[in-house]
Amino acid sequence: MAARVSNLGIRFLTAAIALALVACVSQVQGQGGGFGFFQQAIGGIRVDPNNALTGQMDQLDAELRTKLAKQLKAADADIKQAGMRMISLKGVQTEMTKALSAGKPIDAELQYLCGIQRIEYVIADPENNDVILAGFGEDWRVNELGNVVGVTTGRPVLKLEDLLVAMRTVENARRDYGISVSIDPTAEGVDRLQKFYSGNSFDPSMVPQIEQAMGDNMISLTGIPADSRYAQILVAADHKMKRLSMGLDPAPIANFPSMLEMIQAKNAEIRTMSPRFWMECAYQPLAKSEDGLVWNLRGTGVKTLTEESFVTRKAGKQDKAAKANKFASQWADMMTERFEELASAEPIFWELRNLMDMSVVAALIVKEDLLAKASLDLAVINGTDNQVSTPTWNVPKTVPAQCSYVRTSRSWIVTASGGIQVDSWSVVAQSETVNELRKSGDAALSRTANRWWWNATN
């Protein structure tokens, strides 16, 4: 399905999870970029034209994967060299502007930021009027679902599209509402469910009636365009976390029980409740050089927390419980401790961390005034000149309610709500000076002439 064609200058075409960026001049359409048109899907979910999350994504057939792979084969041979990869934001903007002026497709190298898989360093380079992003990069491939991933790690590469959204929502991230997603039942649905419970003793055969009573859960997004890929990643990651916690999806790694299985194993007696899980940023204090020009992001990047609430019949509201559910806390701790292992099996969590990294980088650049220190204007990337728009995706608004259950000494049902918060400004508020970091920055700045990206030398 083709995304909306913007008259601001850039058209984005969707290709499964992969995206083809196409530049055009004014209202003259550019070329398709070779990816073709596929259904929009992120992290194993689809958002249908009615704005509902539906179904699971199928694998791409061999012919479509071949078409995607051909576009990547045209990339520079140096991409095959694994190691620390440097990206010039000045160069990224220059390449975008060239495509805009010429009406030519933006190539795969720029679409996928030359295969970098995580941002680890941010380096201000006043001598070259630039800001550099650096992290591990390697050769890439197209996996079974159409993702562009590292050839050895299988981790998704960063997307230019997401970087643009992160840079353009940096001020939203520091406002009270911040960047977040939440999937929650409606007050009316909770009230209907409680009325159903009041007249019935639970039996597994009642599950369809329970789900019908609850109705659709509502998806709430703040701080980012609801029709962006960034938003779809937040929703997909939150949705996956919810399904894993409830046991609706099988564990993708060994010894990773759902919260319900934890309760069943202990034969605990627990009333109907709604443990709320959410994910947020988890970084160590940022490391910085003495001159404040080299920064290092440290830590896994994501943690899972819980807040216990229980459903009351008073106006259909969910009230906080006086005591936290120990099983919910144990499940959240397990997901935090095994995040990297889980993300390797469920790459949507790598995608989530990439978003958090990019938003932290955007906040760092603003907080430390790195653009001014480098005498660099990123009007095209930041969107302040209104030349380049980001692509549009179907807006996720609802997801059908689902319940899961286990039997202990009694029958009971657990419903779960969730969320994600990207509190990038709290991350950049904490830093510490590391003397050796300046040397790392100097080595990374041994750039290749006339290139917007290069591999760092030892």
Topology, element by element:
Elements: E1 10-15, E2 18-23, E3 41-42, E4 45-47, E5 53-54, H1 62-73, E6 83-88, H2 89-102, H3 108-111, E7 121-125, E8 130-137, E9 140-142, E10 148-150, H4 160-168, H5 170-174, E11 179-185, H6 187-198, H7 207-214, E12 216-222, H8 229-246, H9 259-266, E13 274-282, E14 286-288, E15 294-296, E16 301-311, E17 318-320, H10 326-337, H11 339-345, H12 348-367, H13 370-373, H14 379-382, E18 398-400, E19 404-407, E20 411-414, E21 417-422, H15 424-428, E22 431-433, H16 437-444, E23 453-455
Parallel strand pairs: 13-21, 14-22
Antiparallel strand pairs: 1-2, 3-4, 4-5, 6-8, 6-23, 7-8, 7-15, 9-10, 11-12, 11-21, 12-18, 13-16, 14-15, 16-17, 19-20
Helix pairs in contact: 4-12, 8-12, 9-10
Structural summary, described in words:
By secondary structure, the chain is α+β, with helices and mostly antiparallel strands. Helix content is 33%, strand content 24%. It has 16 helices and 23 strands. Helix 4 packs across helix 12 (348-367), helix 8 packs across helix 12 (348-367) and helix 9 crosses helix 10. It is globular.
